C-alpha cells in the first residue's frame, strides 16, 4: 500500500524505511504523506511498541527532492511546509512511543530534521549530517531550528545552520547529536536490538517521559515542570506495568512489561 516507504512489524517494532534509494531518499509530497500516515497508524496500533526509522541504500535522506522546486513556477515555501513537512514532524513528536532513527548515510536538509525529530539516533560510522538549507538560501525547517539548539546549544546550532558544513557521525556524537555510532555493517542489527529493547520496556511510561520532557523544555518555571511530572506520574502509576515492575522487584525476577 505504500510506494515510497517500506513498512514492516517485527517483535512489536515497526520498521519504517524511506525507500527512494536512487534519489537518496529525497522527499516528495507522496513520501511526506506516507511517513505521516505510517506514524499515525502506529499511534493506534497496540501491537507496536517502538519504531525504527531508516533509509534504503546509501543515504538516510537528502531532504526535499529539489526537482520539485527547480521550475519557474513560484513556490509558497510556508504553505509547502505547513502542508507536507510540519504534519510529518508533529506525527513523530506526538507519538507516545519511542522512535529510533538508524541513520545509515547522509541526512541532509529536512532529512537531517527528520532524524533530529526522533527520540534516539544511532548512526553508522559512514553517516553524516548537513543542515544544507543555507546553500540554497533557505533556513533550517521541519523542526531543525527547534531541535538543534536544544540538542547542541545555541552557539553550535548557529554554526551548523549558518555554515551548513557536513559533519561526520563521530563529530555528531561529540556534539551530542547522536546517541551511538556503530560500524556500518552492524547498524541494522544494533539499531533493531536497541528498538526491540525499548519495545520490551514499560512503553506507556516511555511515552509519558517523551511528553513530559518535551513540555519541560518550554516550562516557564520549575513549579510548572514539577506539576506536569506529578500529572504524568499519576498516569504511569495506574499502569499494569508499574504493578508488574514492583511485583517483579520483590519476587526477584525479570518483569514482563506489556506497554499497558
Ligand atoms: O520550501 C521548501 O523547499 C521547504 C522544504 C525544504 C526541505 C529541504 O530539505 S531543503 C534542502 C534540500 N536538500 C539539499 O539541499 C541537499 C542537496 N544535496 C546535497 O547537498 C548532496 O547531494 C548530499 C550531501 C545530500 C549528498 O552528497 P553526495 O556527494 O553524497 O552525493 P551527490 O553527488 O551530491 O548526489 C548524488 C545525486 O543525487 C546527484 O544526482 P546526479 O548528479 O547523480 O544525477 C544529486 O543531484 C542528487 N541529489 C542529491 N540531493 C538531492 C538530489 N536530487 C534532488 N534533490 C536532492 N535533495
TrEMBL record:
InterPro entries: ClpP/crotonase-like_dom_sf (IPR029045), Enoyl-CoA_hyd/isom_CS (IPR018376), Enoyl-CoA_hydra/iso (IPR001753), Enoyl-CoA_hydra_C (IPR014748). Gene3D superfamilies: 2-enoyl-CoA Hydratase, Chain A, domain 1, Lyase 2-enoyl-coa Hydratase, Chain A, domain 2. It holds the Pfam family ECH_1. GO terms for molecular function: isomerase activity. Keywords: Isomerase. It comes from the Bacteria. Belongs to the enoyl-CoA hydratase/isomerase family. This is Enoyl-CoA hydratase/isomerase. The lineage of its organism: Bacteria, Bacillati, Bacillota, Bacilli, Bacillales.
